[in-house]
Design a protein that fits this description.
By secondary structure, the protein is α/β, with parallel strands linked by helices. It is about 35% helix and about 15% strand.
Amino acid sequence: MPHFRTYDDAELHYRVLGPDDSPLPPLVCLAGGPGRDAAYLGDLGGLSAHRQLILPDSRGTGASPAAADPSRYAFPQLAEDLEALRAHLDLERFALLAHDAGAAVAQAYAAGYPQRLTRLVMVCPGSRLQGELPDDAREIFESRRHEEWWPEASVALQQLAEAADLSEVRELLFAAAPLAYGRWDEPQRTHAATEGAQLGPVPRAGFWQGVDEQLRAALLAGLHEVTCPVLVVTGDRDAVTGMRAGEWVAASFPDARVHPLHGVGHYPWVDEPALFGPVVEEFLHAV
């Protein structure tokens, strides 16, 4: 697996999917979680068929080592790792896709390095950076109480708050997993089965550390200066971050639009790759 040296000389790893000879520019893709192995992104529903995908393993996930300094897990610091990756790849400018909590890293990067981005895609982002915690995710979850998996998932959600044992957490995550998908069929079950093993508790705990109101305000002010086009993809069955969060995130940029997908949960490329892929490719096409 290829690697690069970041600003503090840590050796971080990344994966490359897709054709070496593609005429299309690469797409750098950030995983969420936070603290989740980027393997769960797969090929993003076939996006690697025509262009290279660059998937970095953030500190303490995948093949990348744990951080010696816990402050390096905070998402503004992860944005600095992204800048080191850009320099390593010798990309003057590039397109960036981020899923879930990875969108916070992407926003920190956009605020700090707006001139480096050609396009920015954020898939099912949360809006914690915006200071908004919309409640429509719960509304979406409640609207699905007629589905067979709902009672077990509801109990698992309540128990997760008290669970301490790692094996118990993994079992509960799988029991609650259907709320993250548009439906609970074999592809979704297979995808969800790896979640517990992919989460890094330490990187996850450090992701929001040290982010105070002053820093948050500075980042949001920086987003108002971002000139590249921004696409925010949401799913109307996403009971993890909901849809309103994406609207709040889009509102932070001068040139952003929201594209909701029907019948789709928190992982659009798993639920409806035939819907997700064309939306992203159409947006990237002008890059």
